[in-house]
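Researcher: Here's the sequence for the chain we discussed earlier.
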Amino acid sequence: MTTEAMLALTGCVCGKGTSTETCCRPLLRGEVRARTAEELLRSRYAAYVLGEMDYVFATHDPATQEGLDREGSERWSKEATWQGLEIVATERGGEDDSEGVIEFIARFSVKGVAQSHHERAQFARKDGTWFFVDGEMVKPAPVVRSAPKIGRNDPCPCGSGKKHKRCCTE
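Model: Thanks. This is the structure I predict for it:
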């Protein structure tokens, strides 16, 4: 089944609309402008999925475009199997706002290895047009140990009577 046929069956690749043709495609073609920061984010995700990199770069704030890696972005877009977009949180970015922040997770796989891109993205509206300004990766919360750490010379928790370093660590 072709990608286009799959898209017709599953709704819009951005996860919001009933079809890519009526949801994100008009934005990608330049027929309409994003009304909100979230709409721009979703359409940019769709552009990555569909390999529409001109749209990704056109919707990037011109003031922060220096240093963008077009070749790397295109390669990532093509090599990834896109699996979905989750909006975690939004701050402002509505139709009456001039800026907004959206935290999102884009899930994908490369060569069969599942991955995710978790980011807090900043958006700004200039002259009625929303642009992606910058993003910051969201780091996972640190793992907090609930039990005390077992020292190498402590008795092994398995109950053998041996020191931990001579029992269950070997």
